[in-house]
Specification:
By secondary structure, the chain is mainly alpha-helical. It has one domain: Na+/H+ antiporter like fold (Up-down Bundle). Helix 4 packs across helix 10, helix 4 runs antiparallel to helix 12 and helix 6 packs parallel to helix 16.
């Protein structure tokens, strides 16, 4: 019974977020703290000796950043709303849970762990410049915008990393205590998903009727980029003998972070992108796990 509930925790979180959106949406101020806690617990499990940055990691980062910029400028010709909604689905860093799924699929957990760290660091530096350039807040200068966004993004993405390693080095007892509750990160993820889902529903319920076409297009293109990222990662990974790890690295996103960034720094409608992406990536991963399970039973 408990295992069944855990399997459906994320689905339950999203349902609760939708059903009680007036209440869960009002808790959006907690999202940065939940993200910090989730990443801190994740990084506490990382040993500095286990981090091995390989050439494939840099290729994946290059694709992640450059393709998000390219897609934004292409779609901007049609609509800035659509461009931002699809762009954030590509820019978002790899999910902390990706390493777990990768291990279940027979990929390299070490590869994914290293890329998750690198991906978060890259986005922490790239996002303030990209969001400022998009001019969502034209009333302030570019440099002021970069500094303002960076001051809020860096603590969420960078501080957990340094905090985890500082605890490991100087406060090992506290580090050990956090390791003993590392599974709590999954439930922080679920809580964050519930809140940002509620916040998205609040926006959708209060908007005017003129955005439905763009929202539908964002949802469709979110599916396209989700499938494309898993596919591109798999193609690149085949050349290195590990298609599963590369596919998960590029395709499985930290959608909680993506939703928070969209709701905080981009146009509100852009949150439709990561809100639908989380469904697509979970469907793909569920299908992959089912297929691997069937293959294992057949053998």
């Amino acid at each position: 019974m408990i295992k069944t509930l855990k399997d459906f925790t994320l689905v339950i979180a999203m349902v609760l977020g939708v059903a009680f959106y007036r209440y869960t949406g009002a808790l959006s101020f907690l999202t940065p703290y939940l993200l910090f806690g989730m990443l801190l617990l994740t990084f506490c499990k990382l040993s500095p000796r286990a981090i091995r940055i390989k050439p494939m990691h840099w290729w994946l980062i290059l694709i992640q950043i450059s393709s998000s910029i390219a897609v934004y400028f292409i779609l901007f010709l049609y609509s800035r709303d659509v461009a931002q909604g699809v762009m954030i689905c590509i820019l978002a860093p790899t999910a902390a849970a990706a390493a777990v799924v990768t291990g279940m699929l027979g990929g390299s957990v070490a590869f994914l762990t290293s890329y998750t760290l690198l991906s978060n660091l890259a986005v922490a530096f790239a996002a303030p410049f990209m969001f400022s350039f998009m001019g969502t807040h034209p009333d302030i200068s570019f440099l002021t915008s970069v500094l303002k966004i960076g001051s809020r993004v860096f603590p969420v993405l960078i501080l957990p990393f340094f905090s985890a390693w500082a605890l490991r080095k100087w406060l090992p007892r506290w580090h050990k205590a956090l390791l003993s509750v590392s599974k709590l990160s999954f439930y922080l993820w679920a809580a964050g998903l519930m809140i940002v889902t509620g916040r998205t529903v609040v926006f959708l319920s209060e908007q005017d009727t003129g955005h439905y076409r763009d929202e539908a297009l964002i949802a469709v293109l979110s599916l396209v980029v989700c499938v494309a990222q898993f596919w591109i990662g798999r193609i690149l990974g085949k050349k290195r003998g590990d298609p599963t790890s590369a596919a998960q690295a590029l395709g499985q996103k930290n959608t909680i972070l993506a939703l928070w960034m969209a709701q905080t720094y981009l146009l509100p409608i852009s949150s439709v992108g990561p809100a639908t992406y989380v469904i697509y990536q979970n469907v793909i991963n569920s299908w992959q796990l089912w297929r691997k399970g069937r293959k294992s039973r057949a053998e």
